[in-house]
């Protein structure tokens, strides 16, 4: 990461106005969104949107021509171009031809994308944004930090200062007064403007209709008062028919602002009269700017299903800490990272793609059904292909790919860590490594890894065998989790097999974009894990489980590897996470809980991969309750703890405040234990609580359940 | 019809519209005239009300209104709308599910009176309230109408610190007058 980028993160994190405003917003947003969707089948709505926009993007050319023909039949002029420079030239030529002195704009991200205001200013034409948020950032000489709320990063004090400096001195930080002031100052501009510029939220090919959604009413004024109307529309806004509007308008306001509908929706089809009765000039610019290139990419075509609601920003645990400006000048957040890589260039996403913590929070709430973290991972992969891994990363993955070397280094670390070790923790590391232990302690490498301990566990011979995939953390830091798992499965009459040749699951390599390394890890593990004829391959690490169940296949497919696919499918079908397996065994009557246990109050943390990829949220809770625990749910129980593998090493400054929130939510429950299914989360949360000196115990579900069965 | 109205009223009120229901047009008109006087509509400068007449005054006549409330005009121009206190127009349909008013707003006068004055008063027949968005789109088709306007409550913004503030660029009050016997010509 560039030092400039790291510095922009630092600045954002140290801006209390920004983190305060975004933090409060992200909390309120969840509530208002849920309320707005009451009585609506969100899955059905987004299935339709994905279908509508997916099929539209497959035939942009046809729909664009159809739109043009229909809009022109109704008196509009439609200009199609792939080139942002052409858009600006067209508008400036039009402005000159029409003798335009002043322009008013309603919010248009497409115009932000091409930096249109700058072009007007250079041409000496007065241009004013009229959306309140856009006007504020225009006056402040900034760029939007959020697609829906461009000035969300500013406080009323800052707004009052901007108004006082740029418009009229003496404005007080009183929101209703500031809004009234804006109304008063912008009204004459609406009335005086010769040209109005809008964007559009939807463009309907069969009728040549533009659908424009606003709350302030500025788009209605912009499209009514000036004698020339220009609409700048990205071709991804095209849909085939009028019936396609309904699902998009059902989702957009609900997802964007928690409204059932915005105050105003205008459907404009062709020319309308001016206030003097003359027909209004309507120019519609259908802009491509690499959207057609995205269509041709089998992975990224999906990103064109975006309806620009900004949900992926609103639910992102990283966005709420750093805000939009670290992402760049136009599109921000998760989808913004992807759009920047395409509309600008892949290289522009090099730093910002690293901000994605891969927690998956945005996936279940995206109205366009876009796998945003998946696409960001794909950007990461392509960046590595294009530019190569850094030398340090290469050295690390060279080790990870050599199991014997990797494991002997870990064993060596168990010895060399001694100067830093305090009990089971490493609390301080020297020099540049200190970032890692600033905000949490790290687990000491266990003196005896699980692979050695396992040999000493006396297991009765059983006909049914289950293969245990430990993963690095359980093997080398938390062997007791593995021991607990073996003991529980033994009680169900299952013999656990631990194949010695298992190695790193490849997640660290894959999440860094090093797919070739991940593929080799996958091959090694498939061979090791399928060697035994077993009912299941179980893992007590959700990230490893996801690797075995989904990522091996995806990595092979991404690299065009076909020879290992069948084996990967076999492993996938056999793989199960710990809690889901134990729940099954309990349901089948093969495991029985001890009766009459009152074990007290605990709280449960949902790990990202377990909840959002493996969809196991009820299983661990049910097991813990049946064991005799009462679960006091914490606030945001399914929000990432900030660990995310190597993320916490690369961006400790972001990982730390995410963890801090998590710890507060845990403490607020009053429970004296927090339980989770992921050793990575255990590492992060246990380390954080240790640093805090908190007495709250952190346990893996397997450990918590170890002694609970008959 | 009554439950549809109630659903509309609940939704519209929730987004700060003010909804009033009357049995007949004369009753509704009496309310409107009272309302206009109450908010200070008069013949004084910048105090007028601008009315885009549909069928509401059929059988009643514009003079009746002019006599009752000086300051009401039916001559809609850009300048008059920019200085008017109240804009009045007849809406074509409403959507119960979202509390939305819908209008063929191709005629620029209809847009002027519902965008520029600080108060927009909308009249509508009770039977014009439909269940949902798609029912309205079957009746007001973008294939045929060049400007369809959907209005849900007054103009609003939350662009500063996400604090909801009513009345930024459009009307700060939206008064909806719903009439049961709209079609019946009064005696």
Short description:
The complex is a heterodimer of chains A (710) and B (187). Chain A is of the alpha/beta class and 710 residues long.
Structural class of chain A: alpha/beta
Oligomer: heterodimer
CATH architecture of chain B: 3-Layer(aba) Sandwich
Separation of termini of chain B? 25 Å
Strand segment count of chain A: 21
Query: How much is the average pLDDT of chain A?
Result: 94
**Which superfamily, in CATH terms, is the homologous superfamily of chain B?**
NagB/RpiA/CoA transferase-like
Give the beta-strand count of chain B. 12
Query: Which fold name corresponds to the CATH topology of chain B?
Result: Rossmann fold
Structural class of chain B: alpha/beta
State the share of residues found in helices of chain B, binned by percent: 25-40%
What is the element layout, followed by pairings?
The complex is a heterodimer of chains A (710) and B (187).
Chain A: H1 3-13, H2 16-36, H3 42-58, H4 60-73, E1 77-81, H5 84-97, E2 102-105, H6 109-113, H7 116-122, E3 126-129, H8 132-139, H9 156-166, H10 175-192, E4 195-198, E5 202-204, E6 209-214, H11 218-222, E7 228-234, E8 238-239, H12 245-257, E9 264-269, E10 281-287, H13 291-296, H14 311-314, H15 319-322, H16 333-344, H17 372-387, H18 391-400, H19 403-416, E11 421-422, E12 425-426, H20 434-438, E13 442-443, H21 450-456, E14 465-469, H22 471-476, H23 479-491, E15 495-497, H24 507-511, H25 515-530, E16 536-539, H26 542-559, H27 565-574, E17 575-577, H28 578-587, E18 600-605, H29 608-613, H30 618-627, E19 629-631, H31 647-650, H32 652-668, E20 673-676, H33 679-692, E21 697-700, H34 701-705
Parallel strand pairs in A: 1-10, 2-3, 2-4, 4-7, 5-8, 7-10, 14-15, 14-16, 16-17, 18-19, 18-20, 20-21
Antiparallel strand pairs in A: 5-6, 6-9, 11-12, 12-13
Helix pairs in contact in A: 2-12, 3-12, 16-17, 21-23, 25-26, 25-27, 26-27, 28-30, 32-33
Chain B: H1 2-14, E1 18-22, H2 25-38, E2 49-52, H3 62-68, E3 72-73, H4 78-83, E4 86-90, E5 93-95, E6 100-104, H5 108-115, E7 119-125, E8 129-130, H6 133-139, E9 147-151, E10 156-157, E11 165-166, E12 173-179
Parallel strand pairs in B: 1-12, 2-3, 2-4, 4-7, 5-8, 7-12
Antiparallel strand pairs in B: 5-6, 6-9, 10-11
């Amino acid at each position: 990461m560039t030092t400039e980028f790291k510095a922009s993160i630092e600045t954002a994190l140290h801006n209390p106005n920004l983190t305060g405003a975004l933090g409060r917003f992200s909390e309120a947003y969840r509530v208002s969104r849920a309320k707005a969707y009451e009585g609506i089948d969100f899955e059905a709505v987004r299935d339709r949107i994905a279908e509508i926009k997916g099929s539209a993007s497959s035939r942009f050319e046809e729909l664009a021509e159809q739109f043009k023909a229909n809009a022109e039949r109704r008196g509009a002029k439609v200009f199609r171009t792939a080139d942002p420079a052409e858009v600006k030239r067209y508008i400036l030529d039009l402005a000159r031809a029409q003798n335009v002195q002043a322009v008013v704009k309603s919010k248009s991200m497409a115009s932000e994308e091409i930096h249109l205001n700058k072009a007007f200013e250079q041409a000496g034409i007065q241009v004013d944004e009229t959306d309140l948020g856009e006007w504020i950032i225009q006056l402040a000489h900034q760029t939007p930090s959020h697609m829906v709320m461009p000035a969300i990063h500013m406080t009323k004090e800052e707004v009052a200062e901007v108004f006082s400096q740029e418009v009229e001195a003496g404005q007080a930080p009183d929101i209703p007064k500031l809004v009234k002031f804006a109304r008063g100052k912008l009204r004459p501009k609406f009335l005086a403007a010769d040209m109005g510029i809008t964007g559009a939220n939807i463009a309907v090919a069969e009728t040549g209709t533009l659908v424009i959604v606003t709350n302030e009413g500025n788009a209605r004024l912009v499209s009514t008062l000036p004698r020339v109307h220009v609409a700048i529309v990205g071709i991804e806004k095209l849909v085939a028919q009028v019936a396609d509007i309904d699902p998009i308008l059902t989702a957009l306001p609900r997802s964007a602002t928690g409204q059932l509908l915005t105050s105003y929706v205008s459907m404009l089809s062709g020319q309308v009269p001016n206030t003097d009765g003359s027909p209004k000039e309507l120019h519609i610019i259908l802009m491509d700017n690499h959207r057609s290139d995205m269509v041709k990419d089998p992975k990224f075509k999906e990103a064109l299903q975006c309806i620009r609601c900004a949900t992926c920003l609103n639910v992102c645990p990283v966005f709420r800490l750093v805000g939009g400006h670290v992402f760049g000048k136009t599109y921000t957040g998760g989808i913004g990272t992807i759009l920047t890589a395409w509309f600008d260039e892949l290289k522009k996403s090099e730093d910002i793609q690293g901000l994605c913590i891969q927690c998956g929070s945005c996936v279940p709430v995206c109205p366009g059904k876009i796998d945003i973290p998946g696409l960001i991972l794909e950007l990461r992969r392509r960046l590595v292909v294009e530019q190569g891994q850094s030398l340090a990363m290469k050295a690390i993955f060279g080790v990870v790919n050599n199991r014997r070397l990797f494991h002997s280094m870990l064993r060596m670390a168990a010895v060399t860590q001694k100067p830093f070790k305090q009990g089971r923790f490493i609390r301080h590391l020297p020099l540049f490594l200190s970032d890692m232990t600033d905000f949490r302690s790290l687990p000491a490498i266990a003196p005896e890894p699980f692979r050695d301990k396992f040999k000493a566990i006396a297991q009765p011979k059983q006909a049914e065998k289950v293969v245990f995939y430990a993963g690095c953390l359980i093997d080398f830091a938390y062997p007791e989790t593995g021991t607990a798992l073996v003991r529980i499965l033994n009680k169900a009459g299952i013999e656990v097999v631990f194949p010695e040749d298992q190695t790193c699951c490849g997640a660290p390599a894959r999440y860094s974009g090093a797919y070739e390394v991940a593929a080799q890890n996958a091959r090694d593990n498939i061979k090791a894990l399928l060697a035994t004829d077993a009912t299941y391959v179980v893992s007590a690490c959700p990230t490893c489980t996801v690797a075995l169940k989904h990522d091996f296949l995806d990595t092979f497919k991404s690299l065009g590897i076909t020879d290992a696919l069948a084996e990967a499918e076999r492993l996938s079908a056999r793989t199960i996470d710990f809690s889901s397996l134990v729940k099954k065994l309990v349901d089948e009557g093969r495991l029985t809980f001890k009766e009459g246990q009152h074990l007290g109050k605990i709280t449960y943390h949902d790990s990202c991969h377990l909840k959002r990829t493996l969809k196991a949220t009820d299983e661990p809770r049910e097991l813990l309750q049946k064991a005799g625990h009462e679960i006091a749910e914490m606030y945001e129980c399914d929000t990432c703890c900030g660990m995310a593998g190597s993320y916490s090493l690369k961006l400790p400054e972001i990982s730390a405040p995410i963890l801090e929130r998590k710890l507060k939510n845990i403490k607020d429950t009053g429970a004296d234990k927090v339980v989770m299914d992921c050793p990575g989360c255990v590492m992060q949360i246990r380390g954080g609580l240790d640093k805090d000196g908190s007495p709250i115990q952190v346990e893996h579900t397997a450990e918590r359940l170890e002694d609970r069965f008959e | 019809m009554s439950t549809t109205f109630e659903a509309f009223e609940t939704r519209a009120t929730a987004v700060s519209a003010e909804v009033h229901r009357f049995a007949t047009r004369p009753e509704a008109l009496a309310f409107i005239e009272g309302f206009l006087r109450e908010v200070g509509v008069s013949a004084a400068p910048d105090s007028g009300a601008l009315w885009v007449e549909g069928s509401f005054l059929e059988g009643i006549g514009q003079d009746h209104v002019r006599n009752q409330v000086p300051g009401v005009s039916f001559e809609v121009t850009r300048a008059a709308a920019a200085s008017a206190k109240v804009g009045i127009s007849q809406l074509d349909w409403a959507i119960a599910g979202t509390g939305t008013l819908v209008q063929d707003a191709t005629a620029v006068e209809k847009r002027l009176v519902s965008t520029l004055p600080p108060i927009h008063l909308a009249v509508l027949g009770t039977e014009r309230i439909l269940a949902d968005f798609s029912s309205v789109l079957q009746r007001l088709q973008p294939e045929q109408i060049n400007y369809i306007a959907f209005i849900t409550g007054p103009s609003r913004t939350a662009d500063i610190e996400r604090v909801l503030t009513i009345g930024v660029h459009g009307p700060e009050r939206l008064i909806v007058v719903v009439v049961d016997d709209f079609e019946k010509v009064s005696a």
